[in-house]
Amino acid sequence: MPVRPVFEAIDGGFLATELASGPWDPHAQIGGAPAAMPAREFERVPAPEGLVVARVTYDFIRPAPIGPVEIHTPPPPGFASRGH
Amino acid sequence: MSTPPVFEGSDGRFVATQLARGPWDPNHLHGGAPAALLMRAFERLPAPDGLTVARVTYELLRPIPVGPLEIKAEVVRPGRRVQLLEGSIIVDGVEVVRARALQVQAADAGAGAGESTPPPLGPEHGRPPELRVPHHPMFAFDAIEIVFVVGGWGGGPCTAWFRLRSPIVAGETPSPLQRLAAAGDFGNGISATLSWDDYLYINPDLTLYLEREPIGEWICLESQTRILRDGIGVAESVLYDERGRVGRATQALLVAPR
């Protein structure tokens, strides 16, 4: 039997399963679950060869419920090529 | 005569003076200057009683030229116990710095586990670094006094105290949080292990974590830069004020041959 996932792919997004739930509220996800999802999305954003992730900062703005979620990766403001 | 400021202006429009200049290019600012100016903007936003700055992350997106700039700051997630603030510095319509600050309610007095770690040897025991300075005036040394109590400039792990001599904004005394932001961006500079002539080790970001509100004029950094082979440079500093440990500063580094 396959191991149950933390998120299941559904139309237009993902479904956070009960395996995503945290200790404070059975209906809310632990931070590590949504933190891993954007990390997966960031890995798909095109980047020049040789660039690696140096830092990720997560702002947990509101409780993330167990259930359907969408993930957006808005275009970043962009670093200058010069100096960076 | 009043001390010349790092920035002149008010109401979101400022001019960065030469006292804001960094070491890498005489036309560009040191990260500590915009970090302090954005901290000032965050301090002026409305916050419920008891909320205090827990973290600020600065994305230093582009070089910031000496000269005019605009600054904006707003509460993006208001709250009674947690707030998220966002601010930007814009030059000629282009965003050059973006910052987010997290404010949280200070911990209940009954939950704390005591006092902060005592500070290192005080600044009165410090000595100024022996250093070839690339240009004058600049943020380091001219706007901010720097004295070492352990190690020296660019010699690996070290401990140094910082005190702003110049107002961040003309006519204002800098707050302790502005002083901490100004000093917090020096970790990579003071604890560098690479030759200044051969390498860049410039930071595209800065994150400050606060364990309590800082006090006083002096901020101390106990800094270390780690650069693994084929890895990512990171400079890490424990921050102190005269009373003891106040938090941490972390910078990711672009390390490249010049």
Task: Provide tags for this entry.
heterodimer; A: 84 residues; alpha+beta; 3-stranded antiparallel sheet; 13% helix; 13% strand; B: 258 residues; mainly beta; Porin; 13-stranded antiparallel sheet; 12% helix
Characterise this structure:
The complex is a heterodimer of chains A (84) and B (258). With 84 residues, chain A is an alpha+beta fold. Chain A has one helix at residues 32-42; strands spanning 7-10, 13-16, 67-69. Chain A contains one helix and three strands. Chain A has one domain. The radius of gyration of chain A is 15 Å and the shape is globular. A three-stranded antiparallel β-sheet of chain A has the order 1-2-3, with no helix packed on it. Chain B has a single domain, classed as Porin (Beta Barrel), CATH 2.40.160. In chain B, 12% of the residues lie in helices and 41% in strands. Chain B is built from four helices and 13 strands. Chain B has helices spanning 32-43, 139-143, 176-184, 187-190, and strands at residues 7-10, 13-16, 51-60, 67-77, 82-91, 94-105, 144-150, 158-164, 199-202, 205-210, 218-226, 233-241, 244-257. In chain B, strand 1 (7-10) and strand 2 (13-16) form a beta hairpin. In chain B, helix 1 (32-43) packs antiparallel against helix 3 (176-184). The interface between A and B is medium-sized, with 14 and 24 residues.
Outline:
The complex is a heterodimer of chains A (84) and B (258). With 84 residues, chain A is an alpha+beta fold.
Would you spell out the secondary-structure blueprint of this structure?
The complex is a heterodimer of chains A (84) and B (258).
Chain A: E1 7-10, E2 13-16, H1 32-42, E3 67-69
Antiparallel strand pairs in A: 1-2, 2-3
Chain B: E1 7-10, E2 13-16, H1 32-43, E3 51-60, E4 67-77, E5 82-91, E6 94-105, H2 139-143, E7 144-150, E8 158-164, H3 176-184, H4 187-190, E9 199-202, E10 205-210, E11 218-226, E12 233-241, E13 244-257
Antiparallel strand pairs in B: 1-2, 2-4, 3-6, 3-10, 4-5, 5-6, 7-8, 8-11, 9-13, 10-13, 11-12, 12-13
Helix pairs in contact in B: 1-3
